[in-house]
Amino acid sequence: MRIMMINHFPLAGSGSGTYTHNIATHLLKKGHEVCIVMPENSSHYAGCDGAVLYPVFFTNKELILNALPFDFPCFTSHMNSRMSFFDLTDTQITAYLSVFEMTIEKAVQDFKPDIIHSQHIWLLSWLAHKTDIPYVITSHGTDLMGYGKSKRFRHWANEAAAGAEHIITISHDNDYLVRQYFPSCAYKLILMKNGYDTSRFYPEQVTKEEVLTSFGIQPLKHLVLFSGKHVHFKGIDVLIEAAKIYEGEHPGEIITVITGEGELTEKLKKQTSDRKLKNVHFLGYIDISQMRAWYSAADVTAVPSRREPFGLVAVESLACGCPVVATNQGGLPDIVNDKVGSLVDVDDPMALSDAIQTEIYKCDRNKRGLYAAQYAIENFAQGSLTDALVEVYEAVLRRTGENHLEKIV
Asked: Please, are residues 175 and 191 in contact by the beta-carbon 8 Å criterion?
């Protein structure tokens, strides 16, 4: 089968980028052919071995020939771009759609895909709708945030959803929201969990001292980890308030490491300074190749999101044998249970602090870690989930092929 994948974001630095890369990699392993259309703002970008890439270039720090004269837009932020869809001018939207339409047309002509798998119920999925190729869309949640935030883009999203053969939702909460925003498409929805790359995330024999000293941090007894972009819905401000509590109760024992960046980074650093926290460290973006060591070394990963569409960080952490304390909203209850961590209320620093301390001081990290890693393999391994996705593709092609024959007759 020949599958074209389309994403609004590069293959690194976002959940949907990781999702696209993971699926493409496993489709290729299973003998399918894949091409990917995506934005980039650097000539040195993350690729996908074996896939045919059709990058659309945007301008950032690097001047690239024929690049659009603005950065690629995001729903919130990206490690390589702070441009927002909602800040685009009408002229920029027209240019964005025009260049992507030409690129998709070229990919269709050259690659001749059997099916298109587009990410986000948004602008590029509308362009998939303009082709004669059957397509499915995965909603990643941030598209729904964008739909709710601005009426400006809704007509494109509505047409994209209406033309899709299926809309894949990634959690029960995400499925609920898609039904609310696109009620006429409810019959098209398929709930299918995100997966993780088992060759990249697994328990690694590494110590806190090794990972912390490699970043110039003086080790303490315990390590709490956060990984993600620094935006409001991630709830990092709540984690900082929780750190104030557990640092006060266990002085000199717990380090909190916050990776990633985003529009709120400086504000969060100021909050940390204002709370006089000495053991909270901001490390910026950490390459995905290094995250296995961090998850493996941490006592607990905190995911304090206000409403996380899925929560791939939680899955990756569990796969490395690290328990997770997360909020009981969004997609996180689909992942975290009391055998691999705990769930707390949103915006409750005391509950978050208590749960983190329980993991550190009252739970058997090794026992929970062994169970968590096996639980991740059994429920979220991308290989088996890709088999289910291929079945969706095949069903679409059978159905659309039958419809095409009926029209001819």
From this structure: yes
Alpha-carbon dihedral 303, 197, 289, 243, rounded to 10 degrees: 10
The torsion angle over the Cα atoms of residues 206, 301, 272 and 80, rounded to 10 degrees, is 80
Which residue type occupies 187?
Y
Q: Are 185 and 164 in contact (CB under 8 A)?
A: yes
CA 346/CA 305 separation, integer angstroms: 7
What does the block give as tokens for 305? 């999101």
User: Please, what are the domains in the chain?
Assistant: 2-195+382-408 (3.40.50.2000), 208-380 (3.40.50.2000)
Tokens for 11?
């293959």
> H-type helices in 275-348, by residue range?
288-297, 312-319
Query: Residue 328 corresponds to which amino acid?
Result: N
Do 135 and 168 form a contact (C-beta atoms < 8 A)?
A: no
Give the amino acid at 186.
Answer: A
Q: What are phi and psi of 228, to 5 degrees?
A: 160, 175
First to last CA, the chain: 26
Under a CB-based contact definition with an 8 Å cutoff, are residues 201 and 292 in contact? yes
Retrieve residue 255's tokens.
């380090």
CB 281 within 8 A of CB 257: yes
Q: Which of 16, 99, 95 is nearest to 55 (CA)?
A: 99
Q: Across the beta sheet with 33-40, what order do the strands follow?
A: 52-57, 33-40, 2-6, 115-119, 135-138, 166-169, 189-191
What tokens does 1 get? 């089968």
Per-residue pLDDT of the chain (409 residues; tens, 9 = 90+): 999 999 999 998 888 999 999 999 999 999 999 999 999 999 889 899 999 999 999 998 777 888 999 999 999 888 888 899 999 999 999 999 999 999 999 999 999 999 999 999 999 999 999 999 999 999 999 999 999 999 999 999 999 999 999 999 999 999 999 999 999 999 999 999 999 999 999 999 999 999 999 999 999 999 999 999 999 999 999 999 999 999 999 999 999 999 999 899 999 999 999 999 999 999 999 988 899 999 999 999 999 999 999 999 999 999 999 999 999 999 999 999 999 999 999 999 999 999 999 999 999 999 999 999 999 999 999 988 999 999 999 999 999 986 643 443 3
Determine the residue type at 177. Answer: L
Instruction: Residue count of the chain, please give it.
Output: 409
Please indicate, yes or no, whether the overall pTM of this predicted structure exceeds 0.90: yes
